[in-house]
Model the fold of this input.
Amino acid sequence: MKRFCKLISDYMGVLVLLSALFALLFPDTLSHLRPTLINPLLGIIMFGMGLTLRPEDFKVVFSRPKDVLIGCLAQFTIMPLLAFMLVRVFRLEEALAIGVILVGCCPGGTASNVITYLAKGDLALSVGMTAVSTLLSPVLTPLLVWLFAGKSVDVNVVGMLLSILWVVILPILLGFLAKRFFPKTTQSASDYLPAFSSLAICIIVLIVIAANAHKLLAGGWIVMLVVMLHNVCGLAAGYLIGLLLHLSPAKRRAISIEVGMQNSGLASSLANLHFATYPLATIPGALFSVWHNISGAIVARLYAKSKE
Done:
């Protein structure tokens, strides 16, 4: 069973891609999957993240605050600005533009830690950045969405803040406490959690893509291009900032991956909760979930082979 679960987590990128293709080609077979499942699934993913955190993981915040600050500033400036520029350049319709901006304003994704490890980057910095950006997201994500999308739509900043607290922060806290007070039980479950998280991401992708398959087939290539550019430019910009600040290669890789890989599941969840009148707003998050797992695997291989 452990070997099977490891296989699932190792090939998460492939599974997510296959899920997207299946949902795109056979959407009617998935009509029983409802968008209301997205939040509980994201909660499971965040609970799993909480189970992996240790008090030691936060030491990097205090021992190397400058590195974490640089990474988090890059996270919450580069990706929102890139999203805003891309939706303007490609003149995306309002619903898709909201979705892209939501992705840009979310914290770093949990998969970034795995990719940083494979890329031989600074894993402690990556974990610290993910934790801090996630803790900052209840305040920064709603405010950034309001800043970049508030002129065209009514953004419920308080509602979005509460959603992130319930869907992201609370499950992480519960996972952290569960590990603290039930170490033996959580240790035995840790071998299976990456597989459950991978499957949860696949189901989120299935739900979102299937619900919008017909519209995606009609003109989805534009938003797919925007999502790919958003991710690739984020990866490149994160690395460039590390280079300009003369950080070590390991730190540059960590910041690059942390900036470029977003918590796109959260973006889809927020779109479903707060932009229900714009159904297409959930699509960029789902597409980002597919693409950044592919690009992450490629980047990890390239960074691991590079001396810089």
